[in-house]
Amino acid sequence: MKRYLFLLLTLIMFSCTQSENSNTKTKKSEASNTLSLNEYWSYPNEDLKYTGGIKMIPINTPKGEFKVWTRTMGNNPKIKVLLLHGGPGMTHEIYECFNSWFPQEGIEFIYYDQLGSYYSDQPSDTTLWTIERFVDEVEQVRKALNLDSENFYLFGQSWGGILAMEYALKYQNNLKGLIISNMMASIPEYNKYAHEVLGPQLPPEVLKEVMEMEKNEDYENPRYAELLMEYHYTEHVLRKPIDQWPEAVNRGLKHMNPEVYIYMQGYSEFGISGDATLKEWDRTQNISEIKVPTLVIGSSHDTMDPKHMEWMASEIPYSDFLLCPDGSHLSQYDDQETFFNGLIKFIKDVDSGNFQKM
Q1: Known catalytic residue: 100?
Q2: What start and end residues bound the annotated signal peptide (predicted)?
């Protein structure tokens, strides 16, 4: 229904005759920049039209060539948002709610499963799971999709936020805008927040039992997942009862690649520990080197410290901070209005040249 209303409004704007009031020129200019639904859903080439926007992109790696899965939704030459999922090893599926917000705003966006994730090739070789190789992969995807500084917005959430920061620090000249969602700039600081702030919010007996299992590395114990799901995930990952979690989120969790996840993130669901390769990652000293327009999104109930993410926005010279007061780690679901209204406003402000650091 929203699509049809958008089409009706667009047709009305284009069919209005010239009036004599002083706002006519402005209104006509706005109308001429509005994409019709036919324009938005007309893919730029027949291949994408034939596949419904799906494109398997070949990626060169030190271990040979593999293919990653992408799906382009819509067509806007000025605004193209590439979505970097979390995990590592999760999938694009947890962003399917973007379907309900971006199309009617004329925002083109691209779903993307990183190498190792469910819809892409899944080689079993831990030497591939490095930040540097993933950054190179994103750059190859950018080139294959013809994204550039005139239209390329990079969105990264959680692990995708790490990847987005790293990409920006190396390739920011290719970006028009950057969105860092629900990710701190330091894993050691994240671990500290998890243990000093989030831990004490658990019932004492629950925290004691969880810490005992972590100490014994008893991560396969069903009780470990049960306790965290009931007391931690429903408070800080997605603030709804488990039986009300969106099907797309459950599907994404089901499709997660544990090899990639455990190698980089570790077994612990309460911070990052053990030999996980992301354990010492920290960009607090470099974050100010990002010069492109940036939006940092944090949530009051996140697994990540919202104050730290607000600090990140203060360090990046040309940035703003969006707080989702009712949201958690997946605030695109539990604080949708705040999340999407703020995200869409940022993208449109950058596109129009009206973005200003708050």
Answers
A1: no
A2: 1-19
